[in-house]
Amino acid sequence: MKKQATFNRLMGYMWRYKGLSSLALAFIFLTTLVTTGLPLLARYFIDRFISSQQAAGSFYLLFVYYALFLLRVLLTFLGQYSFARVAQSVVRDLRQEAFDNLQQQGMAYFDRTAAGALVSRLTNDTQAVADMFSEIFSNFLSSVFILAVTLSTMFALNWQLTVMIALFLPVMAASVLLYQHLSNRQLRQVRNKLSDLNVKLSESIEGMRIVQAFGQEKRLLQEFEEINGQHLAFTNRYLNINSLFLRPAMSLLKILAYAVILSYFGLTWKTAGITAGIMYAFIQYVNQLFNPLIDVMQNYSVLQTSMVAADRVFEIIDQRDDEPQQAGLDLQIQDGNIEFRHVSFSYDGRRDVLKDISFTVKKGQTIAFVGSTGSGKSSIINLFLRFYEFERGQILIDGRDIKDYRQEELRRKIGLVLQDPFLYHGTIASNIQMYQEQLTRDEMIEAAKFVDADGFISQLPQGYDAPVTERGSTFSSGQRQLLAFARTVAAQPKILILDEATANIDSETEEIIQTSLRKMRQGRTTIAIAHRLSTIQDADCIYVLDKGRIIESGSHQDLLAHDGLYRKMYQLQAGMMES
């Protein structure tokens, strides 16, 4: 049932292109008529000219025969070309729909799904679907047409012999069903192991510095070799099934059909009136019946691969782990006042990572969260940015529930600067503008100047048009962070989120970064997550988190005066700096 549903769904994609699909079907049907007509013409030539030893008119008939042969070649090309066009259009639609749906998924989905697996589905699996349309589907339809037209023609020539040949069709159908039953599980395992290979390869390449730094090359090589070996084992099992049930089995049935034709001709040629031309036509028609079906069986593995691949692509398209929904009221963030009221949250539904969190931030104020790893700092930011849904407690912006705002309003009015800034492949200008059409080049440059990024940009040969490689690897961590600052400032947010924005910055660059941060914070409500306590000493209020709870709060001086966790953290960092 699932395969049928998948097939029907793919047909729906194909019929989006009714004109081109209908044209392809027309070419295939015309090819079938020409292909079926050639043996009839040969039969007439044999019985009319060769058997009677008459040469008059034979050259004209040969000319017509070869003209029809060339026409069949042309029609076959046009049919396959048309289906290939449909196939690539369908693949484009599948990739676009899958990618569009990925943009709607919540962070929880990406937390549990490997990036390499998603890449594999959007590239390898969609291409497998294209193979089905361009190679298999055209052959399958051609086989259906040929089967119907050829059997009708054979029945008209000699119905008794046709019935004998038709007895082979149920045997062929049984072979197909048995092959499908045995091979389907093996094929799914092959695709799954191929996905695992992509995941391992992606992780190894992206983390190559860590791999080499910790001397993990041998371990990764062994893991890759193990997965690669499993992929080979399932592939070999699949090939064994193919070798038995595909071309050898079908070729054996075709040989038996030839034997039936020759035996029938040898036994009945005197009484049944079967001529040499009819025998030749039947042999050609058996070829027309069996060869396309053999091709379909030979490519049945590709068909099954395509169906499995289509299921995997549809899983992404149908995935409904959507990001948190907003009421979408026509509200605007004016001041940027923030309030958390008794917010509790769990990622897995069992263990709370935030427990009864409450705090308030007024317009223009800066608050900071500090605490050990796993204390809940980033979880507060994740909820505020609506990366995850929460059910207990309430978050307010300017006195209105955060769920009432449109997603676009939140993204436009909340600026985020991460510990490890992400830069896209492109130019410095495109990374700052982030494709905001309303942002002019002058405004983009002004934003860069505001955060003191213009200094190093101006020294580059191409300035703001200097190329940025993947993840901005040609720039220092400080330069990448300044570009991230400029990107955030250019959007003119009301609220600023700093997620350990100075954690990876060297001491020499930190002074520039801190100056830029002070400029960015002016007039904006700011929430900062800090690892270096020296960077948030001027915050209006500092909240100390421990195991998901706020255990201390106050200014830097107040917390130092209180003999608590903050003071211990500060003394520890100060001691490390002195040493």
UniProtKB/TrEMBL annotation:
Q: Which residues form a coiled coil?
A: none
Q: Mainly resides where?
A: membrane
Instruction: Enumerate the transmembrane spans.
Output: 20-46, 58-78, 136-157, 163-182, 255-283
Q: Name one GO molecular function term.
A: ATP binding
Highest rank taxon of the organism: Bacteria
User: Boundaries of each ABC transmembrane type-1 domain copy?
Assistant: 23-305
Q: Does the keyword Transport apply?
A: no
What keywords were assigned to this record?
Answer: ATP-binding, Membrane, Nucleotide-binding, Transmembrane, Transmembrane helix
The record's subcellular location field reads: Cell membrane
Q: What membrane topology term does the record carry? A: Multi-pass membrane protein
Could you tell me what this protein is called? Multidrug ABC transporter ATP-binding protein
Taxonomic source organism: Streptococcus panodentis
Q: What does the record give as the organism's lineage?
A: Bacteria, Bacillati, Bacillota, Bacilli, Lactobacillales
